[in-house]
Design the sequence.
Protein backbone atom coordinates (compact mmCIF):
# COMPACT_ATOMS: atom_id res chain seq x y z
CA UNK A 1 0.00 0.00 0.00
CA UNK A 2 1.24 3.49 -0.87
CA UNK A 3 1.50 6.04 1.91
CA UNK A 4 -0.10 9.34 0.90
CA UNK A 5 1.59 12.58 1.87
CA UNK A 6 -0.83 14.97 0.19
CA UNK A 7 -3.63 16.22 2.42
CA UNK A 8 -5.49 17.52 -0.61
CA UNK A 9 -7.59 15.14 -2.70
CA UNK A 10 -7.01 15.82 -6.38
CA UNK A 11 -9.67 15.72 -9.09
CA UNK A 12 -9.20 13.52 -12.17
CA UNK A 13 -8.18 16.51 -14.31
CA UNK A 14 -5.68 17.68 -11.67
CA UNK A 15 -4.21 14.17 -11.49
CA UNK A 16 -3.81 14.22 -15.28
CA UNK A 17 -1.92 17.53 -15.08
CA UNK A 18 0.35 16.19 -12.35
CA UNK A 19 1.02 12.97 -14.26
CA UNK A 20 1.99 14.99 -17.36
CA UNK A 21 4.54 16.90 -15.27
CA UNK A 22 6.26 13.74 -13.96
CA UNK A 23 10.02 14.13 -14.40
CA UNK A 24 12.20 11.03 -14.54
CA UNK A 25 15.36 11.19 -12.43
CA UNK A 26 18.46 9.46 -13.75
CA UNK A 27 21.27 8.72 -11.34
CA UNK A 28 24.41 10.69 -12.23
CA UNK A 29 26.43 7.44 -12.18
CA UNK A 30 24.14 5.75 -14.73
CA UNK A 31 26.23 5.94 -17.91
CA UNK A 32 25.09 3.46 -20.56
CA UNK A 33 21.52 4.58 -21.06
CA UNK A 34 21.40 6.29 -24.46
CA UNK A 35 18.42 4.14 -25.46
CA UNK A 36 16.49 5.19 -22.35
CA UNK A 37 17.27 8.89 -22.72
CA UNK A 38 16.39 8.54 -26.40
CA UNK A 39 12.96 7.12 -25.54
CA UNK A 40 12.31 9.91 -23.03
CA UNK A 41 13.41 12.61 -25.49
CA UNK A 42 11.43 11.13 -28.39
CA UNK A 43 8.29 11.05 -26.24
CA UNK A 44 8.84 14.54 -24.75
CA UNK A 45 9.16 13.14 -21.23
CA UNK A 46 11.05 15.43 -18.89
CA UNK A 47 14.14 13.96 -17.28
CA UNK A 48 17.14 15.18 -15.37
CA UNK A 49 20.24 13.83 -13.71
CA UNK A 50 20.41 13.60 -9.92
CA UNK A 51 22.53 11.57 -7.55
CA UNK A 52 20.25 8.87 -6.15
CA UNK A 53 21.00 7.00 -2.91
CA UNK A 54 19.74 3.77 -4.43
CA UNK A 55 18.55 2.67 -7.86
CA UNK A 56 19.33 4.18 -11.23
CA UNK A 57 15.95 5.80 -11.96
CA UNK A 58 13.23 7.48 -9.97
CA UNK A 59 11.03 10.56 -10.45
CA UNK A 60 9.84 13.88 -9.10
CA UNK A 61 7.01 16.33 -9.55
CA UNK A 62 8.03 19.93 -10.28
CA UNK A 63 6.61 22.91 -8.45
CA UNK A 64 2.98 23.61 -9.42
CA UNK A 65 1.53 26.39 -7.27
CA UNK A 66 -1.82 26.16 -9.07
CA UNK A 67 -2.19 22.63 -7.63
CA UNK A 68 -0.68 23.45 -4.24
CA UNK A 69 2.80 22.06 -4.89
CA UNK A 70 4.99 24.88 -3.63
CA UNK A 71 8.31 23.18 -4.33
CA UNK A 72 9.45 20.08 -6.23
CA UNK A 73 8.48 16.78 -4.62
CA UNK A 74 11.00 13.96 -4.99
CA UNK A 75 9.92 10.32 -4.81
CA UNK A 76 13.40 8.80 -5.00
CA UNK A 77 13.13 7.73 -1.37
CA UNK A 78 9.90 5.82 -2.10
CA UNK A 79 10.35 4.06 -5.46
CA UNK A 80 13.27 3.37 -7.80
CA UNK A 81 14.41 1.13 -10.61
CA UNK A 82 17.84 -0.51 -10.62
CA UNK A 83 18.93 -1.29 -14.20
CA UNK A 84 21.29 -4.09 -15.16
CA UNK A 85 22.36 -4.34 -18.79
CA UNK A 86 22.47 -8.15 -18.80
CA UNK A 87 22.38 -11.34 -16.77
CA UNK A 88 26.18 -11.34 -16.97
CA UNK A 89 26.32 -7.95 -15.23
CA UNK A 90 23.81 -9.10 -12.62
CA UNK A 91 25.67 -12.35 -11.94
CA UNK A 92 28.85 -10.31 -11.41
CA UNK A 93 26.93 -8.13 -8.94
CA UNK A 94 25.80 -11.25 -7.11
CA UNK A 95 29.34 -12.62 -6.90
CA UNK A 96 32.20 -10.10 -7.16
CA UNK A 97 30.24 -7.00 -6.10
CA UNK A 98 27.73 -8.70 -3.81
CA UNK A 99 28.38 -6.52 -0.74
CA UNK A 100 28.09 -3.33 -2.77
CA UNK A 101 24.90 -4.57 -4.46
CA UNK A 102 23.32 -5.70 -1.20
CA UNK A 103 24.25 -2.40 0.48
CA UNK A 104 22.24 -0.64 -2.22
CA UNK A 105 19.27 -2.87 -1.41
CA UNK A 106 19.71 -2.06 2.29
CA UNK A 107 19.79 1.68 1.49
CA UNK A 108 16.40 1.29 -0.18
CA UNK A 109 15.14 0.76 3.39
CA UNK A 110 11.66 -0.53 2.64
CA UNK A 111 11.11 1.59 -0.47
CA UNK A 112 9.80 -0.04 -3.63
CA UNK A 113 12.78 -1.18 -5.67
CA UNK A 114 12.45 -2.84 -9.06
CA UNK A 115 15.35 -4.69 -10.65
CA UNK A 116 15.17 -4.31 -14.43
CA UNK A 117 17.41 -6.70 -16.38
CA UNK A 118 17.94 -5.90 -20.07
CA UNK A 119 19.21 -7.95 -23.01
CA UNK A 120 17.60 -11.18 -21.98
CA UNK A 121 14.71 -13.38 -22.95
CA UNK A 122 13.88 -13.95 -19.30
CA UNK A 123 14.03 -16.16 -16.29
CA UNK A 124 14.64 -19.22 -18.44
CA UNK A 125 18.01 -17.77 -19.49
CA UNK A 126 19.17 -18.09 -15.88
CA UNK A 127 18.04 -21.72 -15.74
CA UNK A 128 19.76 -22.45 -19.09
CA UNK A 129 22.93 -20.61 -17.99
CA UNK A 130 22.68 -18.18 -20.93
CA UNK A 131 25.13 -15.67 -19.42
CA UNK A 132 28.90 -15.35 -19.50
CA UNK A 133 30.03 -16.14 -15.96
CA UNK A 134 30.65 -19.30 -13.98
CA UNK A 135 27.89 -18.46 -11.50
CA UNK A 136 25.75 -21.60 -11.25
CA UNK A 137 22.06 -21.19 -12.18
CA UNK A 138 20.96 -22.71 -8.85
CA UNK A 139 23.01 -20.12 -6.92
CA UNK A 140 21.87 -17.31 -9.23
CA UNK A 141 18.20 -18.19 -8.64
CA UNK A 142 18.76 -18.63 -4.90
CA UNK A 143 20.18 -15.12 -4.65
CA UNK A 144 17.46 -13.63 -6.85
CA UNK A 145 14.67 -15.22 -4.80
CA UNK A 146 16.33 -14.48 -1.47
CA UNK A 147 16.71 -10.80 -2.35
CA UNK A 148 13.10 -10.72 -3.57
CA UNK A 149 11.85 -11.80 -0.17
CA UNK A 150 14.47 -10.08 1.97
CA UNK A 151 14.18 -6.65 0.28
CA UNK A 152 10.79 -6.83 -1.51
CA UNK A 153 12.73 -6.68 -4.77
CA UNK A 154 10.69 -7.18 -7.94
CA UNK A 155 12.61 -8.33 -11.02
CA UNK A 156 11.57 -7.71 -14.60
CA UNK A 157 13.36 -8.98 -17.70
CA UNK A 158 13.03 -6.62 -20.65
CA UNK A 159 14.41 -5.86 -24.09
CA UNK A 160 16.51 -2.66 -24.13
CA UNK A 161 14.22 -0.98 -26.69
CA UNK A 162 11.35 -1.25 -24.17
CA UNK A 163 13.30 -0.12 -21.11
CA UNK A 164 12.45 3.60 -21.36
CA UNK A 165 8.77 2.80 -21.74
CA UNK A 166 8.88 0.44 -18.77
CA UNK A 167 10.62 3.01 -16.56
CA UNK A 168 8.24 5.82 -17.43
CA UNK A 169 5.03 3.84 -17.07
CA UNK A 170 6.19 2.17 -13.84
CA UNK A 171 6.50 5.62 -12.29
CA UNK A 172 3.42 7.01 -14.03
CA UNK A 173 1.09 4.34 -12.63
CA UNK A 174 2.80 4.31 -9.23
CA UNK A 175 2.19 8.07 -9.00
CA UNK A 176 -1.39 7.76 -10.26
CA UNK A 177 -2.20 5.33 -7.45
CA UNK A 178 -0.40 7.54 -4.96
CA UNK A 179 -2.45 10.57 -5.96
CA UNK A 180 -5.86 8.82 -5.87
Sequence:
Amino acid sequence: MLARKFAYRYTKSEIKKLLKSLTVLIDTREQKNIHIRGYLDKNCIEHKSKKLNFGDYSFMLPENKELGIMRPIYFNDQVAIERKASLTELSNNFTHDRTQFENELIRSNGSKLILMVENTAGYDDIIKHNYSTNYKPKSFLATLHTFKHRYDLDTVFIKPELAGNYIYYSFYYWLREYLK
